[in-house]
Amino acid sequence: MLIRKTIRFKDKLRFAKIIITQIPESMQTQEYLSRINYQEKAIADLASLQGLMKAHLLNVPFENLDIHQKVWIALDEEKIYTKIVHQRRGGFCYELNGVFRQLLIQIGFDVQLIGAKVFQSATQTFSPPTDHMALLVRTAGETYLADVGFGDFISVPIRISALTHHEEACGRFRLTQTDEYYYVVEKYDEKTAVYIPCYTFTTAPLLLNDFTHSCYYHQLSPDSNFTKNKVCSVLTETGRKTITQAKFMVTTDGVKTEQPVPDEAAFSLWLAKEFAISL
Q: With bands split at pLDDT 50, 70 and 90, how would you rate the model's confidence at 27?
């Protein structure tokens, strides 16, 4: 099914672009809502956007397990939908935000893919422009940053403005417009009492295929964090739980506990028990 959307974001770029969106033929809105355990009526307003994003984060983990299983991840919306909804798996940003965008479009939101440069703490630099995929969603005359594919990050959308302070259960965040084109999202670090950048982005609209090179890079390059370590992480009502090759971590009301993962068998058991994923 083809949906034609005319999207206008009133920022300094003053762009208006027509995007032709291919909705996966297999996609059923109610089926997707059941996958994320969303119980309310879904309409194109801010309350629904907040609820949908939170439900997605609580039920669909951020994970890179296919990369370590040598299962190729293609930017194919049908395959991504099947993986996340039918196979009840998670994914990384290109998969999670890519398919979440399709759900929002089905519900009636004006939504746009954007690219983001991720902050690299080791070098104090930012990665390439399409290293991360996020979403801009317009509702009730405002534009919001929505993201279900960045791990330990916001759990509800942040309003786009010259300066937005955003405080929630996941932490304190600040969104700042740094120049005519760029915005940066930062998270407050309690230990150092400073805001640390998460990523920087522009509101320029992109298509799914614009992320192809970055998607390939993160599956193939030995320099990619995704090829170096397995990870599966999901938001919980009281914090977050995460498993890597080395340890299983649970944060509950700000208190973090860790247990070692001794071998592959233990990893698989925890993955099935805590994340309902069996490879």
A: confident
Residue-wise pLDDT for 197-251, tens only, equals 999 999 999 999 999 999 999 999 999 999 999 999 999 999 999 999 999 999 9
Does residue 69 carry a pLDDT above 50? yes
How would DSSP label each residue in 136-158? EEEETTEEEEE-SSSSSS-SS-E
Q: Which residue from 101, 103, 108 is spatially nearest to 134, judged by alpha carbons?
A: 101
Q: Is the CA virtual torsion 52, 233, 101, 120 positive or negative?
A: positive
What SS3 class is residue 109? coil
Cα separation, 134 vs 125, in Å, equals: 19
Question: Are the beta carbons of 135 and 114 closer than 8 angstroms?
Answer: yes
Q: What's the mean pLDDT in 62-87?
A: 96
Two tokens, residue 138: 């317009």
pTM of the predicted protein model: 0.90
Decide if 240 contacts 225 (C-beta within 8 A): no
pLDDT score of 68 more than 60 = yes
Token readout for 266 is: 């233990």
CB 40 within 8 Å of CB 26: no
* Contact (Cβ atoms closer than 8 angstroms) between residue 266 and residue 260: no
**For residues 250 and 238, is the Cβ–Cβ distance under 8 A?**
no
Q: 228 and 244 in contact (C-beta within 8 Å)?
A: no
Of 218, 185, 191, 176, the residue nearest 119 (C-alpha): 185
CB-side neighbour CA atoms (13 Å) of 112: 25
How many alpha carbons fall within 13 Å on the CB side of residue 47?
Answer: 5
